[in-house]
Amino acid sequence: MPSERRKVSHVSQEAQANIGVVGLAVMGSNLARNLASREGNTVAIFNRSYEKTQTLLDEHPEAGFLPAASYREFADTLQKPRTAIIMVQAGKGTDAVIDALVEVFEPGDIIVDGGNALFTDTIRREKAVRETGINFVGAGISGGEEGALNGPSIMPGGSDESWVTLGPILKSIAAVAEGEPCVTHVGHDGAGHFVKMIHNGIEYADMQLIAEAYDLIRRGTGKSPAEIADIFAEWNRGELESYLIEITAEVLRQVDAETGAPLVDVILDQAGSKGTGVWTVQTSLDLGIPVSGIAEAVFARSLSSKPAQRAAARSLPGPDEGLVVADADAFIEDVRQALYASKIIAYSQGFDAIVAGAEQYGWDIKKGDIAAIWRGGCIIRAQFLNRITEAYAADPGLVALVTAPYFADAVARTQQAWRRVVVAAAQAGIPSPAFSSSLAYYDGLRADRLPAALVQGQRDFFGAHTYKRVDRDGTFHTLWSGDRTEIQAVDAH
Length: 493
Ligand SMILES: NC(=O)c1ccc[n+]([C@@H]2O[C@H](COP(=O)([O-])OP(=O)(O)OC[C@H]3O[C@@H](n4cnc5c(N)ncnc54)[C@H](OP(=O)(O)O)[C@@H]3O)[C@@H](O)[C@H]2O)c1
Prior knowledge:
By secondary structure, the protein is of the alpha/beta class. The chain has helices spanning 4-12, 26-36, 50-59, 71-77, 92-104, 119-130, 144-150, 160-173, 191-221, 225-235, 243-253, 263-266, 276-287, 292-304, 307-313, 328-361, 367-373, 385-394, 405-428, 433-446, 452-463; strands spanning 19-22, 43-46, 66-67, 83-86, 110-113, 135-142, 153-156, 176-177, 180-181, 476-478, 486-488. It has 21 helices and 11 strands. The protein has a 7-stranded mixed sheet, with helices on both faces. The protein has a two-stranded antiparallel ribbon with strand order 8-9. A two-stranded antiparallel ribbon has the order 10-11. Residues 1-13 have low confidence and may be disordered. Bound molecules: NADP nicotinamide-adenine-dinucleotide phosphate. The site of NADP nicotinamide-adenine-dinucleotide phosphate has 23 residues, from helix 2, helix 5 and helix 7. InterPro entries: 6-PGluconate_DH-like_C_sf, 6PGD_dom2, 6PGDH_C, 6PGDH_Gnd/GntZ, 6PGDH_NADP-bd, 6PGdom_BS, NAD(P)-bd_dom_sf, Pgluconate_DH.
């Protein structure tokens, strides 16, 4: 419960804060400190249990936080229009805080949910809160703990009206890439959380691709994790330059203090997740967008986390010979190129999902701006994102990112190496689901003709689902169980 000291501070600090934060766990406390460190901000803070508020006050007196012990007190501490960022446990926690804030806020005030909400929840919440006259903004915030403190990439949705007040505040705390704050008004209602979800999906694919690259190099060349760390550090100076490549080198170099073994060999090989990758795949399935690289990354984590199945399958046969690499340097370069090509596919698929989501939900999302705000502060930050921004600037109607001249050239340059790596992995029995599915997607996309024609024939055979012909308009059905003549169908099923 609040201390006497807090009560005294409240009386003397009424309505002085221009921004408030609700939820002071890892993310909220760091975001509050980030806000407090920027010129002109005075930050009100509230947490359900007062202990976290007190801890933050005690550890960071320099921040000048204005603490509140109740939602009412929190509202009274904020200048109008009140602006509060919620950083609490996604789901029920977020709903509980919104309900409480709606009771004490007034029309024109702004509630921002900075947690990892499912975008359809954000659409629902925005609609409900809007009826009270209060603005609700779902904002994706990427960059974890460190980003929240030093500058995250921020993807806000919500109304144009709330962006007027919120924009300058979010710009002040966002990461900066090449002089630009990594924040843009993504679109209305759930657009921000939708784009954050896709960001996380791409992150899954990127991490899985890097993990496959590491595994192939280790098994193919016998190099140690520390030696492979050097390779990743080298790659980080080229076209693969990115935060994920950089931290991969750090993780591979780490030695376990207890055993003296590389830490990566001591960590249990069962990858967890918090669900945003699954959401990306589920949503993309609903939208009809093949995000196969992201899906394979999610499945790879699921497979890794099935110890009983893995134990039961361990004795199943594989190829006689493991990966035999004649020229280690050439193989490593092939893997680098395969990684780059597959990464292009992962981003291309992610942007396809953004385009489809924008169309489905009526959001005006500027793809180039999204790539630009991912250049800093977030987990997938990378040099490469500049090329995506340029591609959409040159052709805003670009139908597939991989077909933009820069990326088409990159894939043309790397595709032979990509194929060699996928072949070598399959022959040696080394799982490379993200590399190989990305290549299959690429070949499917560029194919003149796909066996989908046969699938249509099968569908027509067993379900009279009809088909179209290449040589004339109309919808057709073959009388499979009759004389097998073709008739023109009136109604497509
Ligand atoms: N951790 C990350 O790296 C990361 C990165 C990006 C986004 N996010 C998102 O940011 C949000 C915050 O993450 P976090 O890791 O800092 O915290 P968290 O562990 O997800 O949530 C803990 C916070 O939620 C509060 N809370 C839970 N239920 C509540 C309720 N019914 N009413 C009021 N408050 C409630 C807790 O209050 P008490 O102290 O009273 O229990 C505590 O402040 C989440 O949505 C998370 O998904 C996290």
